[in-house]
Amino acid sequence: MTNYSLVESDGPDEPPDGRTAALAAVEARLEHTNELLRRMLAEVAKTPSTHAIFVDAGYVYASAGLLVAGTEDRRNFDLDAEGLIDAFIDTARTIFADSRLLRVYWYDGARRRIHTSEQQAIAELPDVKVRLGNLNANNQQKGVDSLIRTDLESLARHRAISDAALVGGDEDLVSAVEAAQGYGARVHLWGIEAADHGNQADPLLWEVDSQRVFDLDFCRPYVTRKPVTLYENENAPLPSREDVAFVGARIAATWFAERGRDRLAELLPGHPYLPGPVDGELLTEAERLLKRSLRGHPPLRRALRDGFWQHLRMVCQN
């Protein structure tokens, strides 16, 4: 029969000294990690949320101009962009009461992406960043929607904003909204009251987190229609077709110098017709130079276009 000896013990087995030290080290590291997390959460709790305002200037000019001045043509009204931007900021401050403004992004088009004097003045405003797309021969913006998407997606991805107020209406902005929402940002669509029919695409309205529309009373202080030009010599004899054609060629020379061959290449396929915006610019500038209205005189307007085209086609041959 085997004899067993009993060993008296004061308690449960103690782990070796090396294991005790290892456990102590792990506990110390866990406590350090927990302390870092507590500090980080405390900082996050103290950090306010952030919002930014993204403005499609082409949409604002067209919608506010039509609503207040009855025209989408920028040449026929003045827009107090600084005052309107301040109003947008005040609105955001009310809606996002516990949030701070990152900045206002102002998206517009310009020939060769060169700032106009008006765009430069806007760019100099505090907390405003001007982003420029291009303008084609028809004065249509190109590349603006992609700029909005890039900024929206980048800011949302880097958690730089929690809310985005988007002033626009183009369906092409849907992808920008989806991209920002994919990173957790909320997108709020702001619009200008439509003068007759809707000016915001339904798919865009369906995609955003909230909607707000600025009415006539809100927009009226920032839009001023320009006075109709009155010419002193309206009773004078009409200019000859040759004189009008010469003025058309003179305007074409300026047009080409400002826009270059790329814009001319876009214009040529439409010969002998001119896109509406270009034709409007041509008529307005011709009347300014002639100090005489050409409205109601179709033969003279044809002579004006003929002179314009003749110069441009001569440029193509050189």
From TrEMBL:
Name of this protein: NYN domain containing protein
Superkingdom to which the source organism belongs: Bacteria
Pfam families: NYN
Cited Gene3D superfamilies: 5'-nuclease
GO MF annotations in UniProt: RNA nuclease activity
InterPro entries, sorted: NYN
Annotated NYN domain residues: 52-196
Protein's organism: Streptomyces laurentii
